[in-house]
Amino acid sequence: MEDARRGFMGTASDNLITDSGGRAVWDLNAYGFLDRDCPDTANPSLWRQSRLCADHGLFEVTDGIYQIRGFDLSNMTLVEGERGILVIDPLLTAETATAGLALYRAHRGDRPVTGVLYTHSHVDHFGGVRGVVTDQDIADGVPVLAPQGFLDHAVSENVYAGTAMSRRSAYMYGAALPKGERGQIGAGLGLTVSTGAVGLIPPTLDITHTGQSESVDGIRMVFQLTPGTEAPAELNIHFPDRSALCMAENATHNQHNLLTLRGAEVRDPRIWAQYLTEAINLFAGASDVAFASHHWPTWGRERLTRFLSEQRDLYAYLHDQTLRMLNQGLTGPEIAEAMRMPPALERAWHTHGYYGSVSHNTKAIYQRYLGWFDGNPAHLWEHPPTEAARRYVEFMGGADDVVRRARQSFADGDFRWVVQVVNHVLFADPKHADARTLQADALEQLGYGSENGTWRNFYLTGTHELRHGSVGTPTDTTPPDLLAALTLDQLFDAAAIRVDGPHAWDADIAVKWNLKGQDPITLRLHNGVLTHTTGSGPAVADPQVEIALAESDLRALLLGTVSPADLARRPGVKITGDAGKLTELLGHLTDPDPDFAIVTP
């Protein structure tokens, strides 16, 4: 508590942060209930963690380094230079970043933003950039620094599987849940996500190697690249003139995810631990404070070295012990149940599973090395959930009998078994009223008991949807800036994953795009697969239609902002051949569903 409140300078006078239309995107007072004692409807450890995350305002980290905390899921760091400030990780949305910058200026003066730095490629660390700088600022020379590979990972993660990730994020962060002792109380890593405007300004300077040194507005920085840790493109920063170390999201006051519940590629705990060792060796001896883009700093060389070492040991232990048990024949769920953490790590609050967890992290490590199949041939060709559910329920004597027995399990406190067995009833008969009620009640109890914030949110969002209907996807993570940053290759790939394969089995359509100043691109739909080829060669099919146009027009078509008919009327567009083939090709594309069912079939 002392660390979380150290350096507090003040907070905003207006507790509600709104967008230009007056819609609330963040409420600083929404978590005021956490000042009360922990109720029976929350895990005391998670309640404590959320209370620490709920402190909001401007905080001084050390001389010339400040943080905006509690204004979004993440922190925004401001480093004072000779003329202005370097903004590190400008939150998730423009509205919260603007409010945070205004708070800083109210206390430290109206300093201009003279640089922006993204520590990694997750949207809560760059999405608010348009709240602190404009395109004109960048054109006038304000640099934007980021780790090598940032842009590719930032846009691809949010576009290829973005719809599914966003829908699952609604569960993970509980953004649509009521905030309170029976609802959302935080996510462990922070409170929740803001719901304003997400943007992206591409980097102008890449950090390409560890040891690279850069100076922005007189602020000297030495970088450590850490790809494949918490994000595929990430870096740590040492400020030698201030004896300060920014650990991005590689060392925060919780156990992090090796596989986030919203979905992502599995992260590598082995390399994560190695980079933490490297950070200790490179920077700990010359640092008096370590801070990150979530939570609060750790002061003192001995304390920060111990903190980083325990974080390192956390990920290394999970990795090594999972592999040890994996090689003894245990499966992912068995390892998750058998894993016990060393007492020294268990006593360190910052290793607790408020965001990641021992349970789902060990399963992620198993998945990373061995994939989905556990080796048991009985699991090689199982029925899908609905078909299996019908058979289970029939074998167990029918839905009513299953629910009757499950009520006794609920009374016995075996909520894990209740949700597992009643799930079969719901997938066999999603309208079974008693099953929906019992499942919602059991999920609610599991949520109340969870130390992990994202588990609680998943359980309680499932409860909410069973009782009240879908919450949908509250936050759009594919805004115009991210779409504009896609390369043509990525846009064509994004179109390919929208093809209704069975519907397009017999289609054979080729469209040639002639872009001014570029090699021609041929797009072919064949065997239900949409491929694109640049230039000429054996892989290039003879086109049925050729279209000469500007790249901006092609982008507009692929993003769906213009129709084929509108395209044909645009100045400079020339279509040769069967124009109907383009309409036919686009007719094979489907739209993703941002509101797909999760707790029911």
Order of strands across the widest beta sheet? 1-4-5-6-7-8-9-10
- H/I helix tally: 21
Q: Termini distance?
A: 44 Å
Classify the beta-strand content into a percent band.
15-25%
Proportion of residues in helical segments: 25-40%
Poorly predicted ranges = none
Major β-sheet profile: 8 strands, mixed
Name the shape in a single word. Answer: globular
Q: Which structural class do you get from the secondary structure elements?
A: alpha+beta
| Radius of gyration over C-alpha positions, nearest whole angstrom | 26 Å
Query: What is the chains' assembly state?
Result: single chain
Question: How confident overall, as mean pLDDT?
Answer: 96
Q: Report the count of strand segments.
A: 21
Can you tag this structure with a few keywords?
alpha+beta, 6-stranded mixed β-sheet, 601 residues, 8-stranded mixed β-sheet
Secondary structure elements and their pairing?
Layout (H helix, E strand, L loop, with lengths): L1 H4 L2 E3 L5 E3 L5 E4 L16 H11 L2 E6 L2 E5 L6 E5 L4 E4 L5 H15 L4 E5 L17 H5 L4 E4 L2 H10 L2 H12 L31 E3 L5 E4 L2 E7 L9 E5 L4 E3 L22 H15 L5 E3 L6 E2 L1 H26 L5 H7 L4 H4 L11 H13 L14 H11 L3 H13 L3 H14 L4 H17 L3 H16 L11 H5 L3 H9 L11 E8 L5 E6 L2 E6 L10 E5 L1 H8 L5 H5 L5 E4 L2 H7 L15
Helix pairs in contact: 5-6, 6-16, 7-8, 8-11, 9-11, 12-14, 13-14, 13-15, 14-15, 15-16
Describe this structure in words.
With 601 residues, this protein is an alpha+beta fold. 38% of the residues lie in helices and 16% in strands. The chain has 21 helices and 21 strands.
